[in-house]
Amino acid sequence: MAGGADPKSGGGMVWPFLLRYVLMGVAGYVILSVSPMSLYGLLAGLFLPVAAIAWEAVYEGYAALRRDI
Fold first, then answer.
1. Whole-prediction pTM value?
2. Where in the chain are the domains?
């Protein structure tokens, strides 16, 4: 249409995606093998964003009910 680069093939998109998760797994293994106590930090880093999103949802629900939306 407007002329541009050829779209990536399916395989060309899958490998960077898989590589990202392999690198995260290696980093997690290194963190946990160096110090088992760092498991708490790893779990906090994984679950705090989830807790923040849940808290924001509760707050927005409360604000909507208070304004009768």
1. 0.48
2. 36-69
